[in-house]
Specification:
InterPro entries: FAD-bd, FAD/NAD-bd_sf, PheA/TfdB_FAD_monoxygenase. The protein is built from 15 helices and 24 strands. It is α+β, with helices and mostly antiparallel strands and 522 residues long. The strands form five sheets. It has an eight-stranded mixed β-sheet, sandwiched between helices.
Length: 522
């Protein structure tokens, strides 16, 4: 494709795609003072619901861009998982305590994706370093020396132009044009499945338990969940000879939904939409080509059984944004970008594998498997501690990289279970949670008091030192890891930990927010 004349403006970062992943990436870059241009096919948010769940770890990311309070107001806590048979008889129930909040948020949150996107768009309008441009389609992404040329076409006029950028983030979904442009391809991690997704609104009281219902039926698996005060979602597996056209209205949908409707008439329901979704388990082979990165659905797709699809994209944004900012400011070498795939790919593969496994356990097999489930699941649900394990929102630690020091190192740094995990967003003595204290900077959480010289040097590097009492929540967290200090990255991941504050001190990079005044404030 020939490249049209270039735009004279050169934004440091171009984000392709203004869904939640792209918008959060842009908002995080704004926190680091990086000018960013966001491009999208649509002027406004996509109106149809898609993702419906985010966990507390991901809520911390939203909180970091001042969107968590509005999100919590628009969502409702999820209360766990109930496995049911074809008659909706409970086989097993795993309750979740919404008040157990190590990160300051409910461990599961049900929501309507357009609501979240509108919240993020409002934040985008207030971001001083971000420009949004809708109504354009990206046709190509081409490297040209130390920069990238993004070829776009105006949807209305057809006019093509080239935008030059230092870095491009491809957040443009499952059919990513950016992924195609850099020659990356998806690898299957499991079989695909065709499902019918139904979104309904009603004021009628569907008096169901306020958690996710998973129908374990070998004839037709299904999922039901309430996602808002008046919003409900069903997902039904489609059999080979079925088409979404077979379920175009409430009359044709009623036989599927009837077990949950009880005495409620379909006349009391408003059908928001029906759509066929192919549940895929895939991960991209190459997450980065030089200055172009893939995030979200452009990089990975997962079945929805553990509700981690959208969250994975926001984790991508959180992992990458501070590294892009630090490299652009000359605080880190470009080799730091290699850690993006090093850290995120194993994590994404692990979560996709878990979703595939859970799906098979809940809905796989035939009648014989269902008979086994009826016998085993009620017993398992009564095993002490199993419910908390099933509903635990903690995700795996990140794999080793230069920013996840899991291997044997010198100077009394230790191999510990804390490294690669998130530091708890615990309440401090002043009543503030940790995230509001450290913002998007490197930080050291420790039970030891630094020397005056250490404090000055750390302050110069934009690193916050949080000294905690041994009996405090963070002090007990350190003790469980058998360390007295932990070095925490701007994305709240523990980079290193040890029994010596001096050992950590030698490894602290300069925070990408150092010298960026507005980002130094919580």
């Amino acid at each position: 494709m020939s490249v049209p004349a270039r735009d004279t403006a050169r934004p440091p970062v171009v984000v392709v795609g203004a869904g939640p992943t792209g918008t959060v990436a842009a908002l995080l870059l704004d926190r680091f003072g990086v000018d960013t241009l966001v491009l999208d096919r649509w002027e406004d948010v996509f109106p149809q619901p898609r993702a419906v769940h985010l966990d507390d770890e991901v809520c911390r990311i939203l909180d970091g861009v001042d969107a968590a309070d509005d999100f919590l107001a628009a969502s409702r806590p999820g209360k766990g998982l109930r496995l049911v048979d074809s008659e909706l008889r409970t086989l097993a129930q795993f309750d979740r305590d919404p008040d157990e909040r190590p990160h300051g948020f409910p461990p599961a949150n049900m929501f309507d994706q357009p609501d979240l996107e509108r919240i993020l768009r409002r934040r985008l309008e207030k971001a001083g370093s971000v420009t949004f441009r809708g109504g354009v389609e990206v046709e190509d992404v081409v490297h040209d020396g130390d920069h990238v040329v993004v070829v776009v076409r105006d949807v209305e006029t057809g006019r093509r132009e080239a935008i030059t950028a230092d870095v491009v983030l491809g957040c443009d979904g499952a059919n990513s044009a950016v992924r195609t442009a850099i020659g990356s391809s998806m690898t299957d991690l499991g079989p695909s499945q065709r499902w019918l997704v139904i979104d309904v609104e009603t004021e009628a009281p569907l008096a169901h338990w306020e958690g996710v219902h998973q129908l374990c039926d070998p004839q037709r698996a299904a999922t039901y969940m309430r996602i808002g005060a008046t919003r409900h979602r069903w997902e039904f597996e489609l059999v080979d000879d079925e088409s979404p056209d077979d379920y175009a209205d409430l009359a044709s949908l009623e036989p599927l939904m009837r077990p949950w409707l009880a005495d409620v008439s379909v006349d009391d329901l408003e059908l928001i939409r029906t759509a066929e979704y192919t549940f895929r388990a895939q991960v991209v082979d190459r997450w980065r080509d030089r200055r172009v990165f893939l995030l979200g659905d452009a990089a990975h797709l997962t079945p929805p059984f553990i509700g981690q699809g959208l969250g994975a994209g926001l984790r991508d944004a959180s992992n990458l944004a501070w590294k892009v900012a630090a490299v652009r400011r000359g605080l880190l070498p470009e080799s730091a970008w290699e850690t993006y795939q090093q850290e995120r790919e194993p994590h994404a593969r692990s979560m996709i594998g878990l979703a595939v496994m859970v799906g098979r356990l809940m809905v796989g097999g035939g009648e014989r498997t269902m008979t086994i489930r009826r016998g085993i699941l009620p017993v398992l649900s009564r095993v002490p501690g199993l419910a908390s394990l099933v509903t635990d929102s903690t995700t795996p630690a990140l794999s080793a990289s230069p920013f996840v020091r899991t291997g044997p190192v010198r100077s009394r740094l230790t191999r510990t279970a804390l490294v690669g995990t998130l530091v708890p967003n615990a309440v401090q003595g002043d009543g503030a949670r940790l995230d509001s204290t450290v913002a998007h900077r490197f930080s050291i959480v420790t039970t030891a008091t630094p020397t005056a010289q250490q404090s000055r040097d750390l302050d110069r590097r934009g690193c916050v030192v949080v000294v905690v009492p041994p009996a405090s929540p963070l002090g007990r967290w350190l003790a469980r890891g058998r360390v007295s200090a932990a070095l925490v990255r701007p994305d709240r991941t523990v980079m290193a930990a040890g029994t010596s504050l001096a050992a950590l001190f030698t490894r602290v990079p300069t925070s990408p927010t150092a010298g960026v005044g507005k980002s130094d404030a919580p």
